[in-house]
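In response to reviewer comment 3 from the previous cycle, which asked for concrete evidence that the modeling workflow produces usable outputs, we include below a single protein chain processed end to end. The sequence was submitted unchanged, and the resulting structure tokens are shown without manual editing.
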Amino acid sequence: MKILSFNHPKNSKTMKIEQIYTGCLAHAAYYLKSNGEAAIFDPLREVQPYINRAEKDGAKIKYVFETHFHADFVSGHLDLAQKTGAKIVYGPTAKPAFEAIIAEDNQIFEVGACKVKAIHTPGHTMESTTYLLIDENGKEHGLITGDTLFIGDVGRPDLAQHVIADLTQEKLAGHLFESLRNKIMPLSDDLIVYPNHGAGSACGKMMSKETTDTLDNQKRFNYALRADMTKEEFIKEVLNGLTTPPAYFPKNVLMNIKGYESIDTVLDRGEKALSANDFEVIANETEALILDSRQTDDFAAGFIPNSINIGLDSNFAMWVGELIPDINQEILLVTDEGKEEETITRLARVGYDHAIGFLNGGFKTWKEAGKDIETITRISAEEFATSYENKQPIIFDVRKKSEFDSEHIIGAKNIPLNAINEHLAEIPKNQAFILHCAGGYRSMIAASILKQRGWDNFVDVRGGFTAISKTNVPKTAYVCPSTLL
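The workflow returned the following structure tokens.
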């Protein structure tokens, strides 16, 4: 987590607002403090960092404000309320299965000498609410916008339809247009916009890498806030180019609505250190998935048969959600030593609460016990270039379609990683082939899935397309759509 402080406005003597940013989920929570009281907005599942932050200031957490029922992560609202006595607040129309304050539109909440005004802004979801921060002098300072307004984008309006059948993405987009025009755009230009996500989140399609901005800048540069935009134009542009949301999104929404186990219970269950023999017995006697979170080179050099590699060093939680269909799947973990708790926590952030133990001592324990291992062959970009020139190999590119369409190796077939399980029949078992992605992370996930399903006639390119593009492969081996017009 990365903390950014914003002590605005300068003449405020009591207000402190901090953005607590978690890069692997492109997620921003917020900490507001004034005169010994604090509020947390959109917390992640593990809540101790927020409690520690308030204790450092000598502040009591009074409210947990939720901008909406989140789809891309399981919020920490229940644990935070239970551990601190804070009240959970949702916007109008929210119907949680637990005790919470359901705010009225324009309702004011006091946090120390500051005020938080709930502004109902349906569109991303129907309960979506933006919170206006007002300092002790009555000066409006900033907007915590959730997934209603991002920097450079707005929240996708197609997610709630997967939970509420009679909502369509067109209806939601229409609501979002009205919320932006009637509730947000009339506010002061100097307000700071504090969104729930930044670039990399699947909750939008073209978010900026910046995580805050002024409302004035967004009115000028955000495509969805053009002053001359009609409602019909807005709906068309916002819905254009949306990809299928990750399969775990509706499941996370339901967990956020209905409730879940405490993170403490999840950690207790998962942090069971297992010997190599016990690990093997449990793997054989249950239907647990063996998930190896080590880096790609370490995994390729040796791994437990039938394990899947999703490295902790990148978008771990997102790919777990994309590729493990059952959110209640029991999971056995192989991690780098000391990374067990982090791995369990990051699984829980997206609702995978059923880790049942980890290999004590990591993979070396398995190897030293003389257990069976498997490997995956990786080749360099230079070796790929030689093979491409001399053998015309079969190539599978597992990047997103948009990446592939932008530039790819002539002759390569695109099977995006998140769709690999639906396209296994297109991958030969009797012919050798080469896998690659952009940098090697996703292709190793694909390689581990193929190994688990019985493929062993392939190699993976270390460094992926990024490394290949720097070799002496002829430039005609790359094609950009514009060159085909």
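Confidence is low (pLDDT under 50) at residues 475-485. We consider this sufficient to address the reviewer's concern, and the full set will be provided in the supplementary archive.
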